[in-house]
Amino acid sequence: MAGTSPRGGGERRIAGALESEVLATLWATEDTLSPAEIQDRLGGDLAYNTVHTILKRLYDKGLVLRDVAGRRGAYRPAKNAAEVTAEAMRQALDRGPDPIAALQQFVNGLTPREEQALRDLLDEEP
Fold first, then answer.
1. pLDDT tens digit sequence for 78-92
2. In 10 A of CB 85, how many CB atoms?
3. Neighbour count for residue 38 (Cβ, 10 Å)
4. For 39-61, what is each residue's pLDDT tens digit?
5. Are 56 and 48 in contact (CB under 8 A)?
6. Which of 33, 68, 111, 122 could form a disulfide with 37 if both were Cys (CB 3.0 to 4.6 A apart)?
7. Beta strand 64-66 pairing with 75-77
8. Quick check: helix, strand or coil at residue 75?
């Protein structure tokens, strides 16, 4: 059956969702975390090898760093959540044929609070 584990253990998460969960776990602490600690904080339903594989993918993408000065096998984020989100937004604009139209659609979907924050940011002097 699509979307379920071959062992019948329920819904399987896609790699992008797992990467997001691992990053969110790392962003939620200022400490470096081992794969086992991340596995525990995610609820323990993922295999250790799965967490380790996700960390390797994130490392290869430059999104996490291995802690070479401290605990062996511990990881920390290379960028904060805002930086990663801003990069994803920039990449999305660069992919489309009309970035101005995409920005217009984005702005039209903002909440009043988000719109005011954007206006405040644009009004700041560089």
1. 999 999 999 999 999
2. 11
3. 22
4. 999 987 889 999 999 999 999 99
5. no
6. 33
7. antiparallel
8. strand
